[in-house]
Amino acid sequence: MTIIKTKLNRRSFLKVSALAGGGMVLSFSWLAGCQPSPEQEKLGLPDEWFELNSYIKIGDNGLVTLFSPNPEFGSNVKTSMPMILADELDMDWKKVIVEQADFFPERYERQFTGGSQGIRLGWNPLRTAGAAVKYLLVAAAAQTWEVPAEEISTSGGIIRHEGSGKKAHYGEMAALAATLEVPEEIKLLKEIKDFNIIGTSRKNVDGSKIVTGKPMFTMDYKKEGMLIAMIIHPPAFGMKLKSFEAESVKSMPGIKDVFSFKVHKEDYEQNAFDTTTHPELVAIVGNSTWEVLQAKRKLKADWEKSPEREFVMAGWGGNKSTVKVPAGLENTEKHKASMEAHSKRKARELRKDGNPAAAFSRAAKVLERTYTAPFLAHNCMEPVNCFAHVTADQAELYGPIQAPEFVSNTLSERLGLPKEKIHIKLARMGGGFGQRAYGHHMVEAAVISQKVGAPIKMIYTREDDMTYGIYRPTYTATYRAAIDEEGKLTAIHIKAGGIPETPIAPNRFPAGAVDNYLAEGWEIASNITIGAFRAPRSNFIASAEQSFLDELAEELGKDPIDFRLELLDRAKNNPVGNNNDYDPERYAGVLKLVREKSFWDSPRQGIHRGVSAYFCHNSYVAEILDLRMEDNKPVIENVIAAVDCGIVINPDAAANMGEGAIVDGIGNAFFGELPFNDGVPQKSNFNDYKMIRMSEAPRKIEVHFVKNDHDPTGLGEPLFPPVFAAISNALYKATGQRFYQQPFQPQLEMMEQEIKVGQS
Amino acid sequence: MAKINLNINGKTKEVDVDPNTPILWVLRDHLDLVGTKYGCGIAQCGACTVIMDGNAIRSCSTPVSSAEGAKITTIEGLSENGDHPVQKAWMEHDVPQCGYCQAGQVMSAVALLESNPNPSEEDIDNAMNGNICRCGTYLRIKKAIKTAANS
A481, A311 in Cβ contact below 8 A? Predict the structure, then answer.
């Protein structure tokens, strides 16, 4: 058993029963593990619930409600987080109801889904919460039966005392347990070998609701008297509202109001998740979506160029800064030219080991390659939307949001209401991928509701969503390697930047594995807004680095996996420099596992393979992609992934997440691209923004997890970054051409065309 | 505005709407059938798929006036308790991630299997290519369709 301190988690144990959400409206059909009949359902509901802590409520009949604290956007935390609670509680998963917690910072530690940190940072609080409730139940039984607590055992929601033969279900002890105190130090976390829910595959607790079309998303939410709102934002980055003719649409059927509004107050100090592309918007409010949409299409508005503007960023720890938003209408061709120019200039040094300049001047050969990638739109399937009902003394919001804590501050400031009067309910999100960490839509909905004095649901059209900004930035990276006369690698130099940020993580591999190493970064300001996008920065730099290492291995005459393992061996046994931000052994571990699982050493005729590996979000992933050419087009046969993310909570769901990340990566590598002309995004819906579809997905994906006892680490993101280079490296084997520019499809089409011309 | 009679999930419904209103918004705003989703509004993503007279159609781009006299099935009308073979297969393979596109995916799969009970790999690709899943659950969707075909 592990000793745990409960003190740190004291907040989790606040007994605020009056605020306990929703128990009585629950029905038995919310059960996580099975589907009862309506009769069973009626019999199954308890007469009374006892709240043991913020996460766990026990009914007098033994039914248990587990609150899943984090917002759910598809990474399945609503199943895996309660699994952790249930395991430490020794509860039967079949008798568990899972409920989404509201945003409630007094009760939960960290209600943030993003950065692949949900499970990693939730691991100890959730285990502690489950174990502490089990402790209280055992203590209650010991008191009731007058036996020592040490002689009592628990399993599957049942408490037993061997000696006396006494037995009770949790519900029988819950009333007394709820009156007992949790000691500050308890010995009760399970041994890893004793887990019986963690590490077993459990179905998505919302699976049946999803496949039967039950309302679960904000988009589906409705309240008596609710109006529909839509916004109109400027057609281009660098433009702002000049004027609009409200009268042109006010008399249209179903239209209630048309007005413009500022998203933030003039003197508002923004936080990092307040990204607001357009400070002023036009709102149209009406009875139904179709009516509002007609008015939106008809509204006449004039736009003008926006001058340079600035705003104050509050920053972490009170470090205020002024952020300048440049004026101008940007376009992709100019972006490319200015990035190319920056790549040749001196840049900011981020890390230097040894003497790279000397190594390069002595080199017998220098391999230099430049990689680029475009802006990407998130394109969550559920377009941006939010429900808000703001009254004089409170605000109720229901919206897709990954980071409710940040936006609750923003809402409080904007609406002039204290934070405790802002109630945010966490909706299941139709995708997030980072975009939903930014809460501008919630502020917009709240301001609209406040203005019209009614509950409203604000809906962005797909076009509004795709052209709003908060994109994955465009990047470029130049890699150089120095090779001496004996054919040995002596130095690596990376210079990388982007609009508006550099993608480099300077202390990651291959730093630490090369004697002479230099990482430099640069950035170019822009008025095109950016935001986190599944594995920010890693999603590009992994593709550049892993493509370069593949070409470098070839140059050195080495197998690409052997070459990486040699570097990792060096980083392990004789690391260069300090602060190397990875464990070379675990990194090598996934490469070895993927080599074994893919039968790398036994190549197959007609199958072209690319390998790639990356470490991010505390997890290690290696992937091998197999493709064959059919009519000069690549068909992806199989992707084999090896993952080290520590203990895997829900293996089949984890594999699903990994499969999805791989498909997502393939789609973006081949097709993803959002170009601009005069500040206008050149794609605005799925007719021109190509998303991967079923026929382009791999025929097969295998996700293998390294088995170890490390605490769990990130999973939603780490499988995404390596895919890009696995593809480019496989395409090289298949075509003899290297792929340096994302997306890859245009180069493939050009090659196909050349082959056709050659044949005719 | 016009009164339009609809047959949805075996029940007759009368709505009074602009006849150009897409079926999608009639279902969602007027009939409280919100399982059918808005994704793109231009028949490119398939989130709004319903079955009209046996064919999978994109309800976001089909005016309600064209549905008069037709039989429409939405995700809510597939089964009483989520026990349609396609729904069961979806749960067996634990297909959904975010879940937003899945009602449309299920409806496309149902329409496919009704016209082609034993689809080939290529048939499945062709029938499902109009449905985007941003989470990338395509392989599981395909497995679930094969399971449903065999049940």
Answer: no
Same domain, B94 and B71: no
Domains identified in chain A and CATH numbers? 2-211 (3.30.365.10), 218-312+384-459 (3.30.365.10), 474-757 (3.30.365.10)
Structure tokens at A673: 């691209």
Task: Say how many C-beta atoms besides its own lie within 10 A of residue B122's C-beta.
Answer: 9
Return the SS3 of A101.
Answer: coil
CB-based contact (8 Å) between B74 and chain A? yes
3-state secondary structure B17-62: ECCCCEHHHHHHHHCCCCCCCCCCCCCCCCCCEEEECCEEEEHHHC
Query: Chain A within 8 Å of B70 (Cβ-Cβ)?
Result: no
CATH code, B96: 1.10.150.120
Domain boundary among B52, B75, B98: B75
Which residues in chain A are contacts of B15 at CB distance < 8 A? none
pLDDT tens, residue by residue, A507-554: 999 999 999 999 999 999 999 999 999 999 999 999 999 999 999 999
The verdict on B121 and B142 lying in the same domain is yes
pLDDT tens-digit map of A264-317: 998 899 998 999 999 999 999 999 999 999 999 999 999 999 999 999 998 777
Domain that includes residue B12, residue range: 2-75
Number of independent structural domains in chain B: 2
Q: Six-digit token pair at A551? A: 């070409």
- Residue B31 Cα, gap to closest chain A Cα (Å): 12
d(CA A598, CA A611): 10
Which residue of chain A has the CA closest to B131? A693
Q: Taken in order A489, A493, A499, A500, is the CA torsion positive or negative? A: positive
Q: Are residues B11 and B62 in the same domain?
A: yes
Distance from C-alpha of A548 to C-alpha of A369, rounded to nearest angstrom: 7
Please give the average per-residue pLDDT across A659-677, as a whole number: 98
Summarize pLDDT for B110-141 with one digit per residue, the tens: 999 999 999 999 999 999 999 999 999 999 99
- Rounded-to-integer distance, Cα A740 and Cα A749, Å: 15
Q: Do the Cβ atoms of B132 and A693 come within 8 Å?
A: yes
Query: How far out from the chain centre does Cα A189 lie?
Result: 29
Residue A191 half-sphere exposure, CB side, CA atoms within 13 Å?
A: 3
pLDDT band at A114 (very low <50, low <70, confident <90, very high): confident
CB contact under 8 A, A212 and B82: yes
Which of A220, A656, A686 is facing B97, going by the closest CB pair?
Answer: A656
